[in-house]
Amino acid sequence: MKPGNWSQVTEFIILGFPHLRGVQTYLFLLLLLIYLTTILGNLLIFLMVCLDSRLHTPMYRFVSILSLLEFGYTAATIPKMLSNLLSEKKTISFTGCLLQIYFFHSLGATECYLLTAMAYDRYLAICQPLHYPTHMTPALCVKIAVGCWLGGLAGPVAEISLVSRLPFCGPNLIQHIFCDFPPVLSLACTDTSINVLVDFVINSCKILATFLLILSSYVQIICTVLRIPSAAGKRKAFSTCASHLSVVLIFYGSILFMYMRLKKSYSLDYDRALAVVYSVLTPFLNPFIYSLRNKEIKEAVRRQLKRTGILE
Question: pTM for the complete prediction?
Answer without folding.
Answer: 0.90
